[in-house]
Queue: 2 jobs
Job 1
Amino acid sequence: MLKHQAIAAKLKDYIEEHDLPHGAKLPNLTTLMELYGTSKNTMMQALKNLENSHVVYQVQGSGIFVRRRQREAYTPLFQNTAGFFGNFHEHIKHQVLAFEKILAPPDVAQNLKVTSKDPVYRILRLQILDGAPFCLEESFYVVALVGELPKSVASTSIFSYLRQQGLKIGFSDKYFDSVLLDENQAKLLDLPPNSPALRLEDIYYLNDGQIFDYSRTYCQAKFFAQSN
């Protein structure tokens, strides 16, 4: 094991042994170098390993923080949704079905780490591939973090718009499972009720570790059966 790997393992063990929560600030780079008796380059390599393993995240000018997935029972798969959508992603078009500002429902509030009294944008979009329903996407954005959104943004890339507004988007947690579609979901996807679907849940963070978006996407399983 290389020195930077050994240091990364020790720091990870420290985080686990002390049960440090998401967002807990770790000592700065200089202090960590002194604690582990190593050079700046080796310590930076160790931190990069931990960042790639989703153990920590770094905010320029602020420090190093603990990163925790909200659902520990899941196994990491992809770094981005391109791994999930494959070559389909660039060909998908969006049909906006709902755009509204609501109070966060209990399950949404839990995922966004807000209260049920906090307003969120709910955006429901049907993703179209080759003229046919492909996926149903329901997203919730924290109003206090994203500001006022124009309705027109829902038919384009919402993240591109947010970046243009100066929002510093950081990282995400992605969770995959299989579900049976309810009657309304199945109707929108032009499927019979109780049809199987792949569900992707995304939790997106800003650079500073705050959650600003929770989304759940239901996709027809047959598309992925054909793509393998």
Job 2
Amino acid sequence: METLAKRLKQARKSTGLSQEQAGDVVGLANGTISGYERNYRDPDTQTLFELAELYEVSIDWLLGRDSFQQENADLTTEMNKRLKQYGLTQSSLLDIERWKRMGEKEWKELEHYFKYITDTAQHGDD
């Protein structure tokens, strides 16, 4: 499935993850991820589900049955560019050790910001 291989690579890159990082999250060697992206092998159903979830795309899109994800991929790419400006990647946002080092003040600021984001997403620019 050439489409699957191409889309797996595109989705991984749009999240800013290396093959090694993606493999670590889903419990696979980076060589296995490389094999999927080079169309040497296909992931099993569970792995496909885990990769789709990790990359925040649908399985239908990965399999070439839905082209809607391109808009989301473009948005993800833009978000990754903005994160990079601050020395971050999506995977670094999941770095538990960084979260553990935050103090009470940082947690309050983050909570305020998350509330702003969710309120804006729910209500738009009303």
